[in-house]
Amino acid sequence: MRLTKLAFAILLGTSWLSAGRKSSDVKTPQPNKTERVIVLYRRQPNDSDDDKVRRKRGNVHRKFNHVPVTVYDVTKDALDDLDNNPDVESIVPDRPVKSFGQGEVLNAANYWSVNGWYAASGTNCKGCTNGSIGIAILDSGVRTSHSDFNWWNSNTSRVVYNESFVDNNPNDTYGHGTHVAGIAAGEGNVSCLQGGLDNTGNCRAADSFWGIAAGASIINLKVLDGNGNGSDSAVIAAIDRAIQLKNTYNIRVMNLSLGRAVRESYKTDPLCQAVERAWNAGIVVVVAAGNLGRVNEYSTSGYGTITAPGNDPLVITVGAANTLNNWWNEDDRITTYSSKGPTAIDQVVKPDLVAPGNRIIAPQATSSTLVSQNPGNRPLVASYWPWASGNSPYYFTLSGTSMAAPMVAGTAALMIDRDHSLTPNIVKARLMKTARRGFAQTAAIFEPTTNQWYNVTHDIFTVGAGMLDVGAAFSSSDRPSGSAASPKAVYNNSTRKVSLNFTSTGGSNVVWGTNGTFSTNVVWGTNVVWGTNVVWGTNVVWGTSGTNGFNVVWGTSSPFANYSNQAQAMSIAIAGDQ
Asked: Exactly one of 73, 94, 139, 417 is catalytic; which is it?
């Protein structure tokens, strides 16, 4: 199965910090005007809180039942009251979010052993969960009419719920969400059935494009419009709905191939706190890392560019690897565009792992924005039906961390399908421990699309624990107890070394440690961690290559908060790495 990933772009509105406020870069409302804000409370807000805002001529825009957040349109007086309310943790703007920009891929991710397990168990499909596991796709919608979202060789759809939080149409008019959903849970009906079946019922096609958890139920929660744009409040509303529907559709996994710049600590960011609520409700939350790895405006070589909510230590943050479209793993490498850690402000170690995300073929939302503007990204029909010609009306090629994330989401669904007792923390710990650590230490990559050389180091901040290994994660029987929160990276100025602090993000009861099954050298590998808890990396991060870059990565601000390059984001989504 060839899967691709869409580029993540950042679109930032005009806003600034109001001195002395609890609010973060909220614009002070003009007289007789309102500004939309997201308020994170220290407890679940109630009607009394809303009445206080209304008395100051403000309005309630959105309320949530499962996250301690309310979206208000506030006047200056209402904003002042909220600033002085001791129950209010933070006040932020309703920021915009955007989307991030198979055979060889499945081999690189070691998928085939899982396929064999399901075949041996008598299940007549590829990695089929028989609809027992629900995956919530928070994206630009899903083209439910695509046959790959039906049951195998059937006209019955596996998309069991549809809702839009940006308009009245849950259909995918942008073309991103359909692609993402296909990577996580596409059935491969079109490619396999058009190519024909042999006498054993297997595909005769040259290649077929099924998703990792083919057969899972899909919960379509649309949060991005026809141009790939959305808002924090829409995403939070969808997260709230997923928590509400968890037991109805057995939603055990949530995929967010979207994000925005980090503007404050994850501890006070309402978007991050919302994904934490989902995690604590028993939903594995998988988030794309972002596509800012090429950004070097501050001499950081792309370090410190992980996007929100991928900066939250609980969720599984996924970077994108390039398999170079071949069947062996020795030359796999990180993509030049995959965002790198540590996270801004909190210095959390991210990404947690990487997965194939470059030039992935997955279901196409016909006549959507991406497909209409980039018809050349439709693969040849001959790629799955050797006797045909022309470009496929059913599949599309995209690149980015957006495509890597649903590979991990699909794997999580398979793991839970095998053992329904797994918690999000166990799933994350197993994924990271079993990740493959076979990358070369460094690589020099020439990209003809940008006419530049990029030097990458496969360290803890570029590949995390390593490359997704579907088969190993699926087969693992480890049952760690405690939090699998990603650790914090701490720089010691006197020794010029970086160590891992586990208790600052996950409390005292954490999975990771210096000894045992989930020790640092087991999870992150000896090529990325040296000695007793000392992180190894490139000089540009904490060495002598440049004071400017060093201070940016290890500072307490978010230098990339105002970075926006839509053209580069689209280029990554369409072209990827060579």
From this structure: 139
Q: How many CA atoms lie within 13 A of 342 on its CB side?
A: 33
- Of 176, 217, 338, 486, catalytic: 176
Q: Is the dihedral of CA 153, 154, 155, 158 positive or negative?
A: negative
Note whether 526 and 536 are within 8 A (CB).
no
CA nearest neighbour of 481 among 521, 426, 534: 426
Q: Determine whether 140 is an active site residue.
A: no
For residue range 248-283, what is the model confidence (pLDDT) as tens digits?
A: 999 999 999 999 999 999 999 999 999 999 999 999
- Residue 139 bears catalytic tag: yes
Of the residues 402, 476, 483, 486, only one is catalytic, namely 402
How many whole angstroms separate alpha carbon 125 and alpha carbon 118? 8
d(CA 268, CA 274): 11
Q: Which two tokens stand for residue 311?
A: 């900066």
Cα–Cα separations (whole angstroms), residue 184 to 57, 136, 430, 489:
45, 10, 19, 31
Give the ranges where 199-231 is alpha helix by DSSP (H): none
Q: 182 φ, ψ to 5°?
A: -65, -35
pTM of the model: 0.90
527-578 pLDDT, tens digit each: 555 444 566 555 556 555 555 777 788 888 888 877 777 777 778 888 888 8
